[in-house]
Amino acid sequence: MTGSFTLAYVPGVTPGKWARVWQERLPETELTLVQVPAAEAAARVRAGEADAALLRLPGDREDLHAIPLYTETTVVVFPKDHEFAAAGELSLEDLAEHVLWQPLDDTLGWDEVPGQPPVERPETTADAIAVVAAGVGMLVVPQSLARLHHRKDLKHVPLSDAPQSRVALSFPIRDENPELIEHMIGIVRGRTANSTRGPAAEPAPKQAPKQAPKQAPKQRRGPAPQQKKQPAKRAKPRRGR
């Protein structure tokens, strides 16, 4: 199969393992990986700049399908010398008295953001990380983003009762390349190359059934001929001398 496929992905998502499987299964179809800002991922797919995107839910799903792949752990990021440094896990109640930054590219579905409201919202998660590193406030993000923006002067621990984000494969409802999309769905879901959910293989040409060679009809055998029994000869009496 020839052609090309463009897969967009948001920061923190690592599509490398799926790209390797794609290369093994479709070596003649070029796969292009493009990292895009989280706020732009869905729009890139709708505009046709990408065939599909690995993005976070909840989010913009207008005119798009979304297949959830896995759920990320939510963590809170704070300075390494913070009073929470010895904690192994925190709850939203623990953050009530602290400033909590919410960047504009935040994808967590908050009903109500905990903590003290900040003066303004940073543009990106990277900007919010820099502010936290300066010793001002904390940040709640998916664990993959905390690892992506890892710094030696920061620490992150799980936040037990926070909303979670899910990473999903998103593609247009009216897809113009359904066969390649089906291949990508199979790869990210871990299907094997011979899965029945993949594109149908061409059927093998049918061969005419072999006919057994005709055998000459067997002759019916009649009853075996009976042999006539001849009467036994009587011995003649011997005369005396």
String of helices and strands: EHEHEEEEHEHEEH
CATH class of the largest domain: Alpha Beta
Secondary structure tally, helices: 5
Q: Strand-residue fraction? A: 15-25%
Q: How would you write the strand order of the largest sheet?
A: 2-1-3-9-4
Q: What share of residues is helical? A: 10-25%
| Structural domain tally | 2
> How many strand segments?
9
CATH topology of the largest domain: D-Maltodextrin-Binding Protein, domain 2
| Gyration radius, in Å | 39 Å
Largest sheet: 5 strands, mixed
Outline the low-pLDDT stretches: 198-210
- What structural category characterises the helix and strand content? alpha/beta
CATH architecture of the largest domain: 3-Layer(aba) Sandwich
Shape: elongated
Distance between the termini: 120 Å
Mean pLDDT: 83
The CATH H-level homologous superfamily of the largest domain? Periplasmic binding protein-like II
What does this entry look like structurally?
The strands form 2 sheets. This protein has a 5-stranded mixed beta sheet with strand order 2-1-3-9-4. A 4-stranded mixed beta sheet has the order 6-7-5-8. It has helices spanning 16-25, 41-46, 125-133, 143-148, 178-188; strands at 4-9, 30-35, 52-57, 64-71, 74-79, 100-101, 138-142, 154-158, 166-172. The relative contact order is 0.19. The chain has 2 domains: 4-71 and 166-188, D-Maltodextrin-Binding Protein, domain 2; 74-158, D-Maltodextrin-Binding Protein, domain 2 (3-Layer(aba) Sandwich). The protein is an alpha/beta fold.
